[in-house]
Input
Amino acid sequence: MGGGMNLDDLGFDSWFQERLDHSRLDDFNLARVIAVDKNSYVINSGVHDVPAELTGRLIYTADSPLDFPTVGDWVYAQVFDDDSLGIIHALVPRRSILTRKTPGKKIAFQLIAANIDTALIMQSLDGNDNPRRLERYLVMAREGNIEPVVLLSKSDLLSPAELETKVAECVRITPHTAVIPFSNTDRSGIDRVTDLLMPGKTCCLLGSSGVGKTTLLNSLLNDAVFKTQTVREKDHKGRHTTTRRQLIHLENGAMVIDTPGMRELGNISVAHGLNEVFEDITALADQCRFSDCSHTREDGCAVTAAIREGTLSAERFQNYVKMKRESSFNEMSYLEKRRKDKDFGKMVKSVLKQRGQKR
Ligand SMILES: Nc1nc2c(ncn2[C@@H]2O[C@H](COP(=O)(O)OP(=O)(O)OP(=O)(O)O)[C@@H](O)[C@H]2O)c(=O)[nH]1
Ligand SMILES: [Mg+2]
Ligand SMILES: [Zn+2]
Output
């Protein structure tokens, strides 16, 4: 990122201003986290990008991965004139956050990005589009207080009629969300994507590997700046080309964060996101005769009636039930684990204290 930026250009506004800890501003600069690659950071305090690391205190007082900076975060940092390694001391409160459960058995949060205004959820029309996965991404965005937009890439591969069907399918899933088909190849719809990108606002590209996230970024930059790779012939799966999360400034002043495609999309505790994305189902459930209706075989169940009548898709309902179960199971496991960790922490402290007394 070039020189001459100020904090407003990087997305700083009154929301963050009101939440600043002014006592820290004597010693530290405000900076935005531009890139994260494992444990190394790049930050920008309004001058230019500098590499940075975390102070030991931040690392040792962190209670969970949520306490570490991620791309898009505002931080209090020491930045030096000679461009040597900056030091990140603390986080400014976050306006929004994208998280998922770490892949595999472990129950922990993984941070994807913070302070995102719009989530650009991308599915490609070469066979990658999947309504149930789209619902998962929508929950992820809504849970984090982020406005989603659905982008359908590779529209050049479909006829106008096929395209219309695909768009209608997405609109049925998320009626109040913009759904934009586009093509990086023939550039149709790119204007509509550009129109979404506002100066000083930050978007985050989300979607499976190979859907064309990085190619879109290159289209927006009008230049093949970032590496892309063809998808596999047999199943159109991507090759996990992007590995680093980074924030890129576009010419019009908007910022876009490219992310690596995710294989697993679970989450912990997303009740709020689920209620927003599946508001049709929660509204139906309110009409069931019994307030504790399990929506299986009860008389007077509005949910099963809607499925029978064809106004609610059975697959959508199953996905809702599955995500709800997962979310509460993961939440319980997470709380249990935290409780054990705390008990363990207390035990260690009391052992250390006793030892101290003996000496
Ligand atoms: N036909 C067609 N192909 C496209 C389009 N956009 C991207 N592609 C191709 O899709 C492949 C994957 O694109 P990438 O941009 O690398 O995908 P990605 O989403 O960034 O993937 P990861 O970085 O692995 O998460 C490349 O071969 C692109 O040329 C498009 O609009 N139409
Ligand atoms: Mg990529
Ligand atoms: Zn019911």
Observations:
- The two ends are 56 Å apart (CA to CA).
- Residues 97-258 form a domain with the Rossmann fold fold (CATH 3.40.50.300).
- Residues 285, 288, 293, 295, 298, 301-303 surround zinc ion (ligand 3) (CB under 6 Å).
- The mean pLDDT is 90.
